[in-house]
Amino acid sequence: MMLFSSMKTPPDILCLYGARALRGFGDGFAIIILPVYLSAIGFSPQQIGIVASASLLGTAALTLIVGFIAPRYELRSLFLAGAGLIAFTGLIFPAAQTIAPVLLVAFIGSINPSAGDLGMLVPLEHALLTKETADRDRTGVFARYSLIGSLTAAVGSLAAALPEILASNGWPKLGAIKLMFYGYAALGLLAVFLYRRLPRDHSHVANVPKAALGPSRNIVYRLAALFSLDAFAGGFVVQSLLALWLFQRFNLSLQAASLYFFCSSLLGAFSFPVAAWLAKRIGLINTMVFTHIPSSLCLIAAAFSSSLTVVLSLLLVRSALSQMDVPTRSSYVMAVVTPAERTAAASVTAVPRSLASSISPAIAGFMLAGPFSGLPLVVCGCLKIGYDLALLRMFRHTKPPEEIA
């Protein structure tokens, strides 16, 4: 599959790969310790779902703003602002103890309760990766970018067991969890160091387009609508709530949960090069659809199983399939718009995802407290299958340049 080719990788892309690794590691443990921390300070499942929604809603708002202002500002400055926000979030979150400040920090901060790569930095990185990559190599570059993020997220999942280990050695558990948030802040400062290495000549201020979206507006809006359905579905089983479901239904320990999410992230990571290889043979849209549907069926089946072994097996199979649309989706969006529209297109297709996914965790929180706690998994699976069929019907004839050639 030659995921890592022998060609020399440009320094700018290496910086982005490094920053993606730092964010992946931080998200890997943050999505697990977030519900544990909120439960430890007395939050109910419903309140945790509302916090997850607030986080996704704030992410959507910031991503939309960045996508439209990016052509008017130096990208390096925006990258540094995003890394600074990560550091700020890690420092402030441990001080929040009641619902109001927690919601505020979740809304304006960078902690992501979902396994997906969300936030203001994503459209900026996607645009820069595409700018420096040939069409034939684009999907492979996005696969490497996603692979790095998932591998480091897997390691971060293992790190989520640290509070429990420290607690068994005499540390106060709440204090150990807060220490992880400070580690999250340190990752933001390391990302600042990497982004500072980007040259200043990536600013597009001198060539600001009259409109952020032009000839590709219709296709971007249609993709955004479909992606929002997919994200709304995914919001029912964001990783923090999936962890909470496993904790409640099977009394899973924090160490066992961190091991599961490590394996899950690992399987998702190694699916990215497979997705790049598959896309060259059957196309980007077909790769997205025909790997997604089986993963949704596994999720639905897991909701009805009473065996922890069966549930974890089904969820791991889902992890091996469900993430193949990550690099292919990013590559497809960048391929079907003009270069001047790439940052806005990445933002406009990402923001509805965040907005839609910000609604469903709050609903899922109430479902988890209901008589059938697996209902969020069923709803998620059914909606995702509907999204896949609609995507195939609407875009199977809209080809990226490399498939037309």
Structural overview:
- By secondary structure, the protein is mostly helical.
- It has one domain (11-200, 216-398): MFS general substrate transporter like domains (Growth Hormone, Chain: A, Up-down Bundle).
- It has helices at 11-40, 45-69, 75-92, 99-108, 121-131, 135-159, 162-168, 173-195, 217-234, 239-250, 254-282, 284-303, 308-322, 325-335, 342-368, 375-395, 401-404.
- Helix 1 runs parallel beside helix 6 (135-159) and helix 11 (254-282) runs parallel beside helix 13 (308-322).
- Mean pLDDT is 84; it is low at 1-7 and 202-206.
Quickly list its features.
about 400 residues, mainly alpha, Growth Hormone, Chain: A, 17 helices, globular
What does the secondary structure layout of this molecule look like, with pairings?
Blueprint: H1 11-40, H2 45-69, H3 75-92, H4 99-108, H5 121-131, H6 135-159, H7 162-168, H8 173-195, H9 217-234, H10 239-250, H11 254-282, H12 284-303, H13 308-322, H14 325-335, H15 342-368, H16 375-395, H17 401-404
Helix pairs in contact: 1-6, 1-8, 1-10, 1-11, 2-4, 2-15, 3-8, 5-15, 6-11, 6-14, 7-8, 9-15, 9-16, 11-12, 11-13, 11-14, 12-13, 12-14, 12-16
State the CATH class: Mainly Alpha
Shape: globular
% residues in beta strands = under 5%
Q: Report the uncertain regions.
A: 1-7, 202-206
CATH homologous superfamily classification: MFS general substrate transporter like domains
Measured on Cα atoms, how large is the radius of gyration?
A: 20 Å
Helix content: over 70%
User: Could you name the CATH topology?
Assistant: Growth Hormone, Chain: A
Number of strands: 0
Task: Please summarize the sheet with the most strands.
Answer: none
